[in-house]
Amino acid sequence: MFDVLSGLFDPTGFPPRRYCGTGWTAGLIWVHITSDLFIWLAYLSIPLVLFYFTRRRELPFPRLFALFALFILACGTTHLIDALMFDYPVYRLAGLMKAITAVVSWATVLALVPLVPRVMELLAQADRSGAGTKSHRPLAAPRSLRLRDYIVGVLAAVLAILVRAALDPILQGDHIFVVALLAVVYVSWQHGFGPGIACLVIGVGGYTTLFVPNGRLIFDMSTGEHLALGLFFFCGVACSALGQSQRLAQRRARVALAASVARRDELESEVERRRGVEAALRQRETELVAAQRETAEALARLNAFLDNAPMGIAFFDPDLRFVRLNPYLAAVNGKPVEEHTGRALRDVLPDFPADVLAAYRRTAAPDGVSFTAQLRGPDRRFPGETRVWQVTAFPVREATGHTLGAGVVAQDVTDRLRAEEEVRRSERNLADFFDNANVGLHWVGPDDTVLRVNKAELEMLGYTRDEIVGRPIADLHADPAVIGDMLGRLRRGERLDNYPARLRCKDGNTREVLVSSSVLWEEGRFVHSRCFTRDVTEVKRATDELAERARTATLRADVAAALASGDETRVALQACAETLVRQVGARSRGSGRPTRPGAGSSCRPARGCTRTPTGRTAAWNWGGSRSAGSPRRGRRT
Description:
It is built from 17 helices and ten strands. It has helices at about 25-55, 60-85, 90-110, 115-130, 145-170, 180-190, 195-210, 225-310, 325-335, 345-350, 355-365, 415-435, 455-460, 465-470, 480-490, 535-565, 570-590; strands at about 310-315, 320-325, 370-380, 380-395, 405-410, 440-445, 450-455, 495-505, 510-520, 525-535. The strands form two sheets. The chain has a five-stranded antiparallel β-sheet with strand order 2-1-5-4-3. Helix 5 packs antiparallel against helix 6 (about 180-190), helix 6 (about 180-190) packs antiparallel against helix 7 and helix 6 packs parallel to helix 8. The N and C termini lie far apart (about 205 Å).
């Protein structure tokens, strides 16, 4: 078996394949050789591409790609040896190469089978993520640029043919593919794989047609010429692939550079964002610390409020178990706080009213509402005394609306109810005093309208309550100047004592009154005036009559004195008239009202006192007759 390894490249003892059989023709041989050479070139290009991809770190299963490359390279080598054996029968090398290909093929199979589940998993993950393999997508150029690249490839091939034709006298059929290979290298490196292949094909066709020695066709070439043509084609394909690879590498480098620049900008923006986030976090931390401090302070205030509140406060869970209560309520229940926490309300207070307990339970339900009620019950602080409690129950909920239970506030309103009853009793007594006082009373508001009036004043003026309340107080006064002075003094904070005024009755008469009034002020604001009205009409009339009688008596005395003071009657009468005028003027000044001379006076001419046609007064006759001549002294009786 090991004799196979000796003389691997020795064709001795083996005829060339073209002489094995009589059916070989030049065309058939050309087909076989050309096909094997192209297969070998393709199989040689594929491993190069695979080896290029295995250099990328993110490519999965790099060893599997390497096995595939070796397998394809071994297959391509067998095709190359098959092409050589038409003129160089190295069967030992062909057998060894096939054995190597078999071993590499089965190694690839054995490596591929365990990786199938992982490949399927990766494909499923790619389908779920939808990301694909974005970094391996081809970078397609615009259609117009691709067409221009192909035109450049065709022109380069034509130019290479023309240059070779110009150099043909010098080269004499040697090195026919050098210029074409240079053209392929240039086009592939500058314009990519496709234009390079186009330049290669045109160059191969032109060169084999124009520059093959003796004008032989490609079918009539020798094996060496076929091998040279295949090597040229392989080199052209390899150069095109390498050119495309470097173009792709340059393009990817530019894209990577742009991506790195963009990434740098993104990173800078991310750094700025993170700095902002860090600043926000520090601010948030500061705010959180401040919020915790405020929460602790608020909790301390709440604890202080609950511990010192002068009312009972408790919180229950949905099952009406005590969650928290203040010492005030614990003292009312006669048990310490510790005996309440965690226990049901019914267990702590067995005699608690069932209807209120049911109301508490409804309040602690998810759809509970607040309610307020008054309860009567014992207070352990005051044995034997029943107290009245104002109870308010309300649901306790989180910000999300979740119900935590119920809260209850119980306030002892016993003293307040007693005070309210005393206030109501005082108000009733005040109203009774106001309405039933035998002195006229009324209140006047800041707008000078009557707010309230009692029965005595209504009876004095003859009005009903509806006719006076809401009416300006000036409408009831007979003297506008008097009421204006009174209101002005009250607004200045003065107090009126027995201020004389005249009120107008409903029937048109006037009543003489004395008004005592003061103002109720609250924080500098005029609330209302309190007026006491005392009717002095009759007293005034009686006083005036007594004064009138006194003046009349005085006048009579003065007249009698005047008559007795002189002999002449004229002088006596003149003194009487002067006295009368003086008394009437005094009466007018004293009463404040004009008086007609002699009206309402008892000073009237005596019987027998007459006036003469000349205006002279006749002599008084006190029961006798007088003479027609000189006057006669009368005598008093």
